[in-house]
Design brief:
- The chain is α/β, with parallel strands linked by helices and 407 residues long.
- The chain has 2 domains: 35-209, Rossmann fold (3-Layer(aba) Sandwich), CATH 3.40.50.10490; 223-385, Rossmann fold.
- Helix content is 48%, strand content 13%.
- It is built from 14 helices and 10 strands.
- The strands form 2 sheets. The protein has a 5-stranded parallel sheet, with helices on both faces.
- Helix 1 (35-54) packs antiparallel against helix 13 (362-385) and helix 9 packs across helix 13.
- The longest helix is centred in the last third of the chain and has 24 residues, at 362-385.
- The radius of gyration is 20 Å and the shape is globular.
């Protein structure tokens, strides 16, 4: 397979090596386009391609059936991972909760829960199904959690790139996403489990997601005016000393991922706070050198979330925080009141379309709509700060040695 470049975003990405081996640090390029740049450009076509491939995958049907059965019996659906894959696990949980409620299998959104992999290994689930998310399938804590769940007699599954990894070998059901991220600042690695979760949700509800709709939603994040707006945000945030990212509902997942991406790619300290949590004791540690990014794309209870976000924004303005937002188009003008001109990127949360059977549920739509904008903001912030987003700073000896201590 040909590795895509910035000019070839539709080319298929390489799969994992055979025999399996963990990835090595990407060769530094010294400037854009980075591999991360290329991965972001590749995402719309990748998502459509992956959905088409998973449609006839028996592992997708098997996982959907196992999740339905566990919930119907009152047992647990626990989804887990580390780093970006942990956020993928949280996203899968949100998507499957919506699907289970729609299908009438679950009575509560607590039918599926996300647990960090190290914690899941220490206290393995005792019934139901345990689903691991691991892009390469080599994460130490995730594989320990898989093994612990299996030893407890629980059915296990994994969503991962290929079938030859240690994680895949430890799971009963293996859903493969086939194409591997070429940057260590994972973007494809974040989108892959979201798309795979959509496929499983399609089997749960009987409504297969429309690949063209998903592709179009992702592609809107790469439209020139949105890219330009993202570049302005990156320039505004480049000089801050730290960044706080806030969100509510499904946007909490995007906020966590953005905070992680900023630290990985730009070496700038970043913290995720729940929207409400920000207002309970954290503001005293902020000042005019703090950046605040508000994510508002989840349309569920949108009025309440918007009202509280405006209150948080007003409080931050009094202190002098440098504010920015990734905000759904219908409410962008409202949240932008009081913020500096050009500080909001309008996120396209397009749902429905002509075919009701293909409409994305709210959490899924928000997660897809924010994926490219948060990644693009990270990549442009890396450009503005002069950092290489692909290497996790392991070109520098202390960071390389630190990584070797825990990999």
């Amino acid at each position: 397979m040909t590795q895509p470049t910035i000019d070839q975003p539709e080319a298929a990405l390489p799969g994992p090596p055979e025999p399996w081996a963990g990835s090595t640090m990407p060769e530094p390029r010294g400037g854009p386009p980075y591999r991360m740049t290329e991965m972001i450009e590749a995402e719309p076509a990748f998502a459509e391609r992956l959905l088409a491939r998973l449609r006839d995958d028996p592992a997708v049907a098997e996982l959907a059936w196992a999740i339905r059965q566990a919930v119907a019996l009152g047992a647990s659906v626990v989804v887990s991972g580390c780093g970006t894959s942990e956020h993928g696990a949280q996203a899968a949980t949100e998507i499957w909760r919506e699907a289970l409620l729609e299908a009438g299998v679950a009575r509560s959104s607590l039918a599926a829960v996300a647990v960090q992999a190290f914690e899941a290994a220490l206290e393995p689930v005792a019934e139901g199904i345990f689903v691991a998310i691991s892009h390469e399938g080599g994460s130490w804590a995730t594989n320990r959690a898989l093994k612990a769940a299996g030893e407890a007699g629980v059915r296990t599954a994994i969503v991962t790139c290929g079938p030859g990894s240690p994680g895949a070998a430890a799971a009963d059901v293996v859903v493969t996403t086939a194409e591997q991220d070429q940057s260590w600042c994972h973007t494809i690695g974040y989108l892959s489990p979201i798309v795979a979760a959509l496929a499983v949700a399609g089997r749960i509800t009987g409504r297969w997601p429309d690949g063209a709709e998903v592709r179009a939603l992702l592609a809107r994040g790469l439209e020139p005016e949105r890219v330009e707006a993202t570049e302005r945000l990156a320039q505004a945030l480049a000089g801050v000393a730290r960044v706080i990212v806030v969100g509510s509902g499904a946007d909490r997942i995007a906020a966590r991922e953005l905070a992680l991406k900023i630290e990985e790619a730009t070496y700038l300290p970043a913290t995720m706070r729940d929207l409400e949590t920000l207002l309970h004791g954290h503001l005293p540690a902020t000042d005019a050198d703090t950046g605040l990014v508000i994510i508002l794309a989840d349309e569920r209870s949108a009025a309440a979330r918007l009202a509280r976000a405006r209150q948080a924004s007003n409080a931050a303005a009094v202190i002098g925080l440098r504010q920015a937002g990734l905000v759904a188009e219908p409410i962008a003008d409202v949240i932008a009141e009081g913020l500096p001109a050009g500080s909001v990127v309008r996120v396209a949360v397009a749902r429905g379309g002509a075919a009701p059977s293909s409409a994305l549920a709210p959490a899924a739509a928000a997660l897809l709509a924010t994926a490219v904008p948060l990644q693009l903001l990270t990549e442009r912030l890396a450009r503005a700060r002069g950092t290489d987003p692909d290497t996790l700073r392991r070109t520098e000896t202390p960071y390389r040695e630190a990584g070797e201590r825990h990999d």
